[in-house]
Amino acid sequence: MSTTKITLAKGLNMGLRKAMEDDPKVLIMGEDVGKLGGVFRITDGLQKDFGEDRVIDSPLAESGIVGTAVGMALRGYRPVVEIQFDGFVYPAYDQIVCQVAKMSYRSKGRSKMPMVIRIPFGGGIGAVEHHSESPEAQFAHTPGLKVVACSNPVDGYWMIQQAIASDDPVIFLEPKRQYHADKAELDESATPDPLFTSRVVRAGTDATVLAYGPTVKTALKAAEAAATEGKSLEVIDLRTLSPLDMGPVFESVRRTGHAIITHEAHVNLGMGAEVSARIAEECFYSLEAPVLRVGGFDIPYPASRIEEDYLPDLDRVLDAVDRSLDF
Amino acid sequence: MSHHGFGPDLAEVFGPSQQDGGPELVQLLTPEGERVHHPEFDRDFSAEELRGFYRDMVLTRRIDTEATALQRHGELGIWAQLLGQEAAQIGAGRALRPQDYVFPTYREHGVAYCRGVDPLNLLGLFRGVDHGAWNPNDNNFGLYTIVIGAQALHATGYAMGIQRDGDVGTGDPDRDAAVIAHFGDGASSQGDVNEAFIFAASYNAPVVFFCQNNQWAISEPIERQSRIPLYQRALGFGFPGVRVDGNDVLATYAVTQAALQRARDGQGPTFVEAYTYRMGAHTTTDDPTRYRLSDDVENWKLKDPIARLAAYLRRNGLAEDAFIDALKVEADELGHYLREGCKALKDPEALSMFDHVYAEETDEIAAQREGYAKYLASFEGSHA
Lengths: 327, 384
Fold this sequence. Notes:
heterodimer, A: alpha/beta, seven-stranded mixed sheet, 20% strand, B: alpha/beta
C-alpha cells in the first residue's frame, strides 16, 4: 500500500485527472479553469495535459456555462462545471433547477444529465460579499438534483470521481476554507464508501453531532474538547444532502438520544430543519431532548471582519451539546 | 421629434411600416405569388419540391387548426397556435439534414412535423398526459422548452459537442452536422439567448439561431424588445445575421439551408430572423384583440404563406385538381387521426409520477412511491 499526503485541493485535482483519464467524454468547463487552473487551482495542469477542447475556459456567464453543459451532456459528454464562487451560482439557477434537474423526468429517462456542478462554498476566508455563501438547501429542495458535500482530502479524491460517474446531475459542494488547510493520507488502491452515504467519523455515546462540509472539522474539534470534560460525542459526516442517508443517523440517535446538527447555512429552512424533522419522525421515543440546530444566522452573510461571529464554531456547538444534555 | 423624450421615436427607427420587413428582407416569392430573385440566396426549385412545401404547410395548418378546435372542446388544456408561421417552420424544417439537431421552443409544430414526430405526441403535452412523449434522439428533435430561450444554450452546447466529435467541416455531407435553435422575438430579450450568442461566437459553434419574429411576445410588441431590427444584433456578437421573409417558404428554406451549410462547413453560427406574424393568439388562453389592431391582422392576411404559394403553383400549372383533391383527403384524414387519437390518449397511472426523477433512483423516491401505492390501495373496495 502506497499512500500520498494530500490537501483537499490536491485530492480534487487528482480525482478530476483520474476521471478524465478514465473517460474521454469527461470535460471541464468554467471561468479560469484552463491556463490559470482555477482561482483555487483545483484544475491546475489539466488543460495542459488534456487540451483546450476538454478543459474549456468559458466566457464570464454562469447561465451560459451550465446551459451549454446541458447541450454537451445531451450530445453524450460528461461535463464537470466549475462555478467560481457560491454566490455566483444564482445567474445559473434557472438552468440548474428548470433544465438540468428536470431533463430526465420530462424525457421519461431518455435524456440523462450526467453533469457535475462544482461549487466552492462556505465562508471563513475573509472574502467580500457573494464569496462565502452556503446555497445547498436551494438545490437539495429541487427534485432531480443530487447534492453532496465533501469535507476532507480523501473524500475529495473519491467523491468527485463518483459524482462524475453518476448518470444524475450532482451539485458538488467543496468547503473552500479547507482547500489548502489540512493534509491527509490517500491510498489510491482503497475501496471508497459509496457516494450517497453518510459516515460516522467519530464514535461516541452521549450525543450525536451531525455536520457536513466545513463544519465536520468544527464538530470533530468540539468532540475532542467535550471528551476532556468526560462527554462522549458521536460525529456523523452527512456527505450527501440529497438524497439524505439517514440510516446511520437514526441508528446513532436511537443510542444517544441527543442530536445536534451544525451547518454554515442559515438555520431557517436549512438542511438542519429537514434532518431534524426526519429524526423527530423516526426516533421520537428515543429522543431525550429536542433536536438542536447550530447554524448561520438568518441574515445575509456578514462583512468578513465579523464572519467568525456568524459561523458556527466549537463553542456554539458545545453550548448546544450542553443544552441538549441538560434538557 | 421624440414622442417620449428619450431617444428617437420608434417609428423613426423602424420606418413608417412595421409590416414590409424593410429593404433587407430576403424574398423569393412575393405576397402575390410572383417569383422574384435574390443575388445571394436564390436557387431553383423543382415542381416536386414546390408541391412538397405546399403539402407540408397545408398539413401543418391542419394540425394547428385541429388542435385549436380540440382545445375549444376541452380536450387540450392549452395550445400554442402557429397560424401564419407555417412557411417559417416548413422552410427551416425542410432545410435540415437527418444528422442535424433541433432545439425547439413550444410552438414548433411544423418543424416537429418535418422531423417525423407524431403530432399526437405534441397534443399529449398540451393535454397534460406527459411533458413530451417523443424520444429526442429518434428524430434529433429535442423536447419543447417552455422557459423562454433556455434552449438556445442547449443548442450551442450540443453544437460544441458536434465540434468535439469531429463532425464539422469534413466535407462528408452525411457526416457534417449543425444544430438549429428556435425561439421567438420575445426570447431575444433573454439573457440566455444573448449568452448563447456569445458562446457560439467564441467557440465558432455550428449552430443556427432561428428567430421567428412574429411581432408579439404575448402582448408585448417587438418595439418593446428591440430598438433595431433583430437580425442586426448578430453583427454585435460577431457573426452574420439575415432577415428573411418568414411568410415565404422558398426564401426561408434557401436562407436556412445556407446558414446550416455554413455551420456544417465549420464557419460558425448565423442568426436568421424570419420576419412573420402570429395570426392567432399567443396561446388559446390569450385575447389578442386587447392589444393589437384588427387592421394589422387584416394586412398580414394578405401575406398568407399558403395562399401565396398556391397562387404561384396555380399560375404555373403545378397544382392540378388531382394534387389538390388528394391533399384535401390527406388533410381530412390527418384531422380525423388527431381528433380520435387525442380523445384516446390515456391519462398516465398516478404512480408513474415517481418515475425517472433520477437515472439512478433514490431510496427516498422509491419509499414515497411505495407509500402512496399503499395509501391508494387502502381505498380499494371502500367506495362500491
